[in-house]
Design goal:
Elements (H helix, E strand, L loop, with lengths): L1 H9 L11 H34 L18 H10 L9 H11 L26 H14 L1 H9 L21 H21 L1 H38 L13
Helix pairs in contact: 2-7
GO molecular function: ligand-gated monoatomic ion channel activity
Keywords: Glycoprotein, Ion channel, Ion transport, Ligand-gated ion channel, Membrane, Receptor, Transmembrane, Transmembrane helix, Transport
Membrane topology: Multi-pass membrane protein
Length: about 250
């Protein structure tokens, strides 16, 4: 019954009986406080999770860009994005990765690239090291060293990834709540014992009195049986001796 009462009060269902004593009222208060904080915490975390989930991938393709706004410099671009003057801009992928990962943590990058660019290296005509440069660039590309350098220089992240991190309540952060509820439950138990102290005292006294009476009764029975046994031995009549004379 106590488990059913606690379960119903935590989930706000209620039970089909009412509390009467002060201990029950205190325990009910603790249950209502526990349920209120748990529901509010769960609702806040659920709302935060849904908000972050809906905010992902606002712009997913090139057609999402509208209302072209001219920018005069690279710094003007960053300032306009941070001030909310513009919503998005075109940038080189490597530069945008480095900027959003290390400098401007409030900016983000659309994950899918919409256009692949090709870069060339300008050298003097008939340069002696042209062939060596081509071969070494090809070797770097095939060995994956260019990708490693890109990850080291551009994709290294010093800013927290706010799109993937959600603030969640762990069980350790709720220790104070459950400790408070345990304290209220303990106080309710003490209050119940204090209110029933006279009844408990009478019951304990009656129990001890019964045990004492039972013990005395057993002792009296043992003494009575011992006296009966002694009396029986002392009251035994000796059998008469018959002497027969022969003629």
């Amino acid at each position: 019954m106590s488990i059913w009462y606690s379960f119903c009060n935590i989930f706000g269902y209620g039970v089909n009986f009412h509390v009467n004593t002060a201990a029950e009222c205190l325990l009910t208060f603790g249950l209502y406080m526990l349920s209120l904080i748990l529901v509010v915490t769960y609702t806040a975390n659920l709302a935060s999770y849904l908000t972050i989930s809906k905010s992902k991938d606002i712009i997913s393709e090139i057609n999402s860009y509208r209302n072209y706004y001219p920018l005069k410099s690279q710094q003007n671009l960053y300032d306009s994005l941070l001030a909310g003057i513009i919503d998005a801009s075109f940038m080189d992928n490597g530069v945008s990765e480095y900027i959003t990962n290390n400098i401007y943590c409030n900016l983000t990058l659309v994950e899918d690239d919409f256009e692949k660019g090709v870069f060339g290296i300008v050298t003097p005509k008939e340069w002696l090291y042209t062939k060596d440069l081509d071969v070494n660039i090809l070797l770097l590309s095939e060995s994956g060293q260019l990708d490693d350098l890109r990850q080291k220089w551009f994709q290294k992240r010093n800013c927290p990834n706010l799109n993937e991190i959600t603030v969640s309540m762990e069980i350790n952060s709720m220790n104070g709540l459950f400790l408070t509820f345990a304290l209220i439950t303990f106080l309710s138990l003490l209050l119940f014992i204090w209110s029933k102290r006279f009844i408990m005292k009478d019951n304990l006294f009656n129990l001890l009195h019964r045990k004492e009476f039972s013990l005395k009764k057993k002792i009296n029975m043992i003494k009575h049986s011992s006296k009966t046994s002694d009396y029986t031995r002392n009251s035994v009549i000796p059998s008469p001796t018959i002497i027969q004379f022969s003629p």
